[in-house]
Amino acid sequence: MTCQSxxxxxxxxxxAVESDERRIAAAMKDLRSTGWYWGSLTANEARxxxxxxxxxxxxxxxxxxxxxxxTISARTSAGPTNLRIEYKDxxxxxxxxxxxxxxLKQFDSVVHLVEHYVQLSRAGAKAPSSPGPRPAxxxxxxQLLLTRPVYTATPTLxxxxxxxxxxxxxxxxxxxxxxxxxxxxxxYSYHV
Length: 192
Prior knowledge:
Blueprint: H1 6-32, H2 43-50, E1 57-62, E2 70-76, E3 79-88, E4 91-94, H3 110-126, E5 148-149, H4 157-168, H5 179-187
Parallel strand pairs: 1-5
Antiparallel strand pairs: 1-2, 2-3, 3-4
């Protein structure tokens, strides 16, 4: 029989909390630099912003539910909707029904999560299909598309250029550019 002291248990819990705090702080830093993170925007305010937007338009905001940190508000074919982002065991993933949760991908940051679903949505939009609007799924569900972020303000040309360069290459350090510019490009290495 083994016995663990309360001190070692407290230390491991403290370490886990510190690790979570670091991960969440890093996620917040990345989110703030996107331009499409709206902070404490309410669900009704998000609905207003997305009401007349094209399908696939989205933004990320703080969740109004205590058990979740963030929410993606997106315009679907049925109108604006909200998807909670779950944080558990150091990873972010979309909240879903219990049967689907084990199959959903997990990410180190909210921006990686959004980037993944934007890439899936854009790839699906490029797939050949019949002309006209897509038919709704027979079971009454709505397909989630994330194609175009709603920025809180007009992004700078520098930021948009950084996104375009990062879309074109993952090897920024190999580009014939000054180190300072490479650092700027690497500081936000996302495609969204």
